[in-house]
Amino acid sequence: MTGVISEGAIERRLCWIDEIFKLGGQFGTDSRRVEAKLSDEILKDGLSALLSYLRLCSAIPESYRHDSSEEKL
Questions:
Q1: What's the average model confidence in pLDDT over 50-60?
Q2: Do 72 and 28 form a contact (C-beta atoms < 8 A)?
């Protein structure tokens, strides 16, 4: 465990960054798919999964372009 962020949370975040890169540009379809996957993960892993998302939600992954604005992200 690294501070308050567990190794599992770090791995989960990396998986979700990969998932974001897979988005196909169809907002309605993509958002429903991501919402369902996220809901399933929280149901399976419980409150700890949700809390790890909240701890990490404000940190922008390094893989986003340097010049991307917050509004786009």
A1: 73
A2: no
